[in-house]
Amino acid sequence: MNIEQLSINTIRILSAEGVEKAKSGHPGLPLGAAPMAYTLWAKNMKHNPNNPKWVNRDRFVLSAGHGSMLLYSLLHLFEYGLSVEDIKSFRQLDSLTPGHPEYGHTKGVDVTTGPLGQGIANAVGMAMAEAHMAEKFNKDNYNIMDHYTYVLSGDGCLMEGISNEASSLAGTLGLGKLIVLYDSNRITIEGSTDLAFTENVPKRYEALGWEVLYVEDGNNISDIEGKINLAKENLNKPSLIVIKTEIGYGSPKQGKSSAHGEPLGKDNIVSLKEFLEWKSQDEFFVPEEVREHMKEVIEKGIKENERWEEMYNEYKNEFPELANEFENWINLDIPMDYLESDEFWTFDKDMSTREASGVLINRLADKVPNLFGGSADLAPSNKTHMNNREDFSRDNLLGSNIHFGVREHAMAAILNGLYLHGGIRPYGSTFFVFSDYMKGAMRLSSLMGLPVTYILTHDSIGVGEDGPTHQPIEQLAVFRAQPNFIVFRPADNRETAAGWYKAMTSKNTPVGLVLSRQVLPAIDGTGKDALKGGYIIRKEKGKLDLILIGTGSELQLAYKAGEALGRKGIGVRVVSMPSWELFEEQTEEYKTTVLPKDITKRISVEAATSFGWHKYIGLEGKAISIDSFGASGPSNKLFEKFNITVDHIVEEALKLLS
Q1: Cβ neighbours for 112, distance < 8 A, ≥ 6 positions apart
Q2: 3-state SS, residue 551
Q3: Model's pTM, two decimal places?
Q4: Alpha carbon distance 371, 595 (integer Å)
C-alpha cells in the first residue's frame, strides 16, 4: 500500500474510532470523503499549521459540519495541535473536538459549521473578501493576497435554500477562487436522496454561472487532484467539483443511510480494518510512516509561508504606505479620535434613525477604508449606500457597496464569511421583519463572536401601509433572547451615533441597529450615555413617583407623557433604554441609580411585544405594547389604533398611581 493510500486510511480509521468511542457522531462522510480531503490538504491547499492565522493561507470550510471527525483527523495528522487524546475525547464536555467544528475553539477551524448550507455561504463571503483585498493591495510581482477558498459540501448543504442564494451571487460575481468539492454520496438521514432531491445539481450550478467538473470515482486521488488544479486555473467562474463517493466506504454499512449519523459498531470497525488491510487492531493507531509523510507535507506549507513573508518584506520596502494600510485592515484599526469627535455626534436636522444611520455610514466610509457592505436590494430604503465608494462587482472588485440582491438568508452568512476572512468590516441590511430570514446566520455570528453590523430598518408599525407582513412585532424579543447579541434601538440621531459607535468598537459581539422609517425629533438629553444601554433623559422634580421607559420612536411619546404628568405635580423620570444588553453590562450601582428598586410604579413604552419587559417594570408595572400583529394604514393612525400615544401613557400612569 502506498503512503498516500495509507494516510487516507489513517484518516478513515481515526474518524470511525473517534465516533465509536463517543458512541455518537457521523462516520459515513469521513469514510467516503477521506480521499478528497487528503488530496486537498496534502497536495493542493496552501496552509501552515505553525501559523494557522497566516493571512494568505487557503481557507477550508467543512460545510457538512456533521462530518467533523474528518476535520479533526486532518488537524491531528497535520499537527495543528490536536492530540490523540483530543481525538479520543470527541464530543465530550470541554474537549477541543466538539460535535460540530467551532471557530475560535479549535485551532485550524476557519468557521463554525453544522447548520447545513451556512458553510457554503460563509465561503462566498471569504472569497469576496479575498477578491476585494487582492484588488486593493496586490501589485506587479507582489500578490500578497492570493489564495483560494475551498468547501467540502454534501447533498444536504445543496438542498438548503441558503446555498443556492449564495451560489447564485458567487456566479454573478465570478468568484473564480471559490472551489466546492461536492461529496455526492446520494444518501441522507432518511435514505436515498431520490426521496426528495432528484434535480440535476450540476446543470443548476452551470445555470448559476459556475464551472462544473466531475470525478466519477471518489477514491481516485489523481483525478481529484487534477480536477482541483483545473478549477484553480479558471479565475472567471467559481467551480463545483462533483465527486462520486460511497457513504461509509469500506464498512458493512457502505451506501446505507445508517452510516450517516450513528457509530459503526465495534464489529463493523473490525470489518472496516480488514477491508482496508489495516495492520493494527490497536485503537487510534497512526503508522509511523504516515507521521513522517505528514512532516514532509507540512514542511511544504511552512516554506510557502516563508516565501510569502520574504515577498511581503520586499513589498513593505517598495510600498510602505500600502503595507501600513494593509496591516491596518488586518488589525481592524478604528479611528477612535473621530468616533469621539463632535462631528460624529452632531446633526443639523431631525431625521429618521435609518437616515441618521445613512449619514453615519458615509462619515465612517471616509475614515474606515475597509468598511464593506450593502443591502438585500433595499439600499435606497435602508440608507446603506456609501456615496463616495463604487459598487463591488465582477468588473470592479475594488468597489465597496455590495448588491446582495433579494437574498437575506445568504447575506447574513456572507457577512460572517467576510469577517472570518479577516481585514474587512462588514455590514448588511434589510427590513427588520425580514431578519426572520437571517436568524440562523445571525445566531452563528453570536456563537462565533463576530462583531458583524446588522442594519435593520422599518422597525415597527411605523412602516404603515405595507401592513402586518412588514411590521415587526416579536423580532425585538427574539434577538434580545439571543446570547451574545446587542440589540440597539435608538430614539433619535444622537442615539443612532451611539449605536454605530458601539458597532464599530465591538470586539466579540454582533450589533443589530434597529431603525425607524419615520422622522423622529432629537430629544433633549440623548447622547453618549446611550452607550450605557439605559440612562435618564428626564429627571423628576422632587419626589420620584413613576418611571417611564421608552425605546426608539416611542421614547418621544414617553418624554411628552412625562412632561404632561409633571405638570400635574407628579414626579416622573423618563429613561431611554436603547439596549438591554448594554444596560446589563453596567454595575448594579449604576442600574439601581437609573431604576431604583423601591420605585415599583414603572411603565415601558414600545411598539412591539411586551415579552421580556417585566424584567424592568416588575409585576406592578405596565407594558404599553403590541401583543398582536399590526395592520395596514397610515402610521399615525396605527399608533392611535394600538394605543401607543401620549394620552394613553398618561392615562395608564394615573391608573397605576391611583
Answers
A1: 65, 100, 101, 102, 103, 444, 447, 448
A2: coil
A3: 0.98
A4: 37
3 is in an annotated binding site: no
CB burial class (10 A; 0-12, 13-18, 19+) of residue 405?
A: middle
* 625-639 per-position pLDDT tens digit: 999 999 999 999 999
In this prediction, residue 1 has a pLDDT band, given cuts at 50, 70 and 90, of confident
Query: Is the separation of the CB atoms in 95 and 104 below 8 Å?
Result: no
Phi then psi for residue 101, to 5 deg, are -60, 135
Largest CA distance in the chain: 92
User: Residue 51's CB: how many other CB atoms inside 10 A?
Assistant: 15
List the grid coordinates of 616: 424592568
Question: Residue 281 and residue 284: Cα distance in Å, rounded?
Answer: 9
Contacts of 326 (CB under 8 A, 6+ apart): 133, 137, 144, 423
Domains in the chain: ranges and CATH: 3-116+145-301 (3.40.50.970), 336-514 (3.40.50.970), 532-657 (3.40.50.920)
- Would you say 517 is a known binding-site residue? yes
Please tell me whether 455 is known to bind a ligand.
no
Residues annotated as part of the active site: 408
114 is in an annotated binding site: yes
Q: Annotated binding residue at 354?
A: yes
> HEC profile for 454-523?
EEEECCCHHHCCCCHHHCCCCHHHHHHCCCCCEEECCCCHHHHHHHHHHHHHCCCCCEEEECCCCCECCC
